[in-house]
Amino acid sequence: SFIINNVYNLLFSFFKSMYCLISKPVFITTPDKIKIQLFYFLVIPKILIDSNSTSPNKIKNSSFMNWVYKDLKVQTKFKKLAQSNLTKVYPNKFKLICSILSKFFKKPVELELIRLHQPYYDSNILVNFLALIINKNNISACIHKLFDNNIVQMPMAFAQLKWIVAFGGKGPLALQADPNVSLIQSAAYLSGLNIKISGRLMREPIIPRITTKKFEKGSTAIGKINYSDKARFTHKNRKGAFTITIKSGQNF
User: Fold this and answer.
1) Cβ–Cβ under 8 Å, residues 4 and 27
2) Is pLDDT of 42 > 60?
3) CB 42 within 8 A of CB 22
4) pLDDT 10s digits, 53-105
5) Using CA atoms, how far apart are residues 171 and 119, in angstroms rounded to an integer?
6) What is the average pLDDT across 9-20?
7) Can you give the pLDDT at residue 244?
8) Would the pLDDT of 128 be above 50?
9) What are the start-end ranges of the E strands in 92-239?
């Protein structure tokens, strides 16, 4: 609805100021308060967290020293974000946003935040993450690299494990070293991911009559999954408009 979209836009801008992407909010309303559940993903390159900047004491150039000092301050801030809770790093910001939302809904508002360490666990986060890099990198190579990391897990791994243990085909130790078997360790897992990009991108050559690219791995069909999630992002560049559509399937 119109109200939910406005609240989402407000929260998206709020978390963007803290280098975060968010999922679509889930509203839980009770007579006493409103609870807003959110997934968030911290968008900070690892090089800004792990790299060691040069010590300013070893550099005589004052302008370069100022740059290094500023870089060290930013790096310290990013390390706090990566290692601590968002509410501890920005307590005043969260008090302000909760106060604004409470006045809007005329009820106390609580934010329940769950951090995701990978963007592909939520379609809305992934579509906005791809939108950040789509004009700066080769998006096809990035998506293929994403799929090569075995982010999509197959439920047949359970059946294969049971068959091997029951019939003694290879044994448990040999199974762990088998690259063809992907074991599922979590209760919920990503069973399929479908990415569709329509339009012309800045980093890719123009091919006549071909404006759509599809990338798919696993299953997203209804009946084979327990939960389906879909997100879309539309924007413009110098070559025209483009749209990213992501559909993911999860099993529990």
Assistant:
1) yes
2) yes
3) no
4) 444 444 344 444 344 445 556 667 777 777 778 888 888 999 999 999 999 99
5) 35
6) 92
7) 93
8) yes
9) 109-116, 189-199, 212-218, 227-237
Q: How sure is the predictor about 171, in pLDDT bands with cuts at 50, 70 and 90?
A: very low
Query: Which residue from 47, 41, 67 is spatially nearest to 56, judged by alpha carbons?
Result: 67
DSSP state of 56: G
Each residue's pLDDT tens digit, 178-232? 444 444 445 677 888 889 999 888 877 777 777 888 998 887 888 778 888 899 9
Q: In the structure encoding, which two tokens stand for residue 199, read together?
A: 């339009």
What amino acid is encoded at 51 in this protein? S
Tokens 């119109």, located at residue: 2
> What contacts 75, CB < 8 A, 6 or more positions away?
48, 49, 51, 53
Whether residue 95 contacts residue 108, with contact meaning beta carbons closer than 8 Å, is answered with: no
Residue 80, by phi and psi: left (phi above 0), alpha (psi -120 to 50) or beta? alpha
Residue 117 is predicted with a pLDDT of: 87
Residues 6+ apart with CB under 8 A from 207: none
Given a contact cutoff of 8 angstroms between Cβ atoms, the answer to whether 201 and 134 are in contact is: yes
Query: Residue 126's closest CA among 196, 188, 77, 57?
Result: 196
* Segment holding 44, helix H or strand E: none
Contact indicator for 242, 197 with CB cutoff of 8 Å = yes
* CA distance readout (Å), 221 to 66, 159, 224, 251: 55, 21, 6, 12
| Rounded Cα gap, residues 85 and 162, in angstroms | 40
Rounded to whole angstroms, how far apart are CA atoms 34 and 101? 9
Instruction: Provide the CA 119 distance to its chain's centre, in angstroms.
Output: 2
Written as one letter, the residue type at 82 is A
Q: Which residues pair with 189 in a beta bridge?
A: 251
Tokens of 193: 């991911």
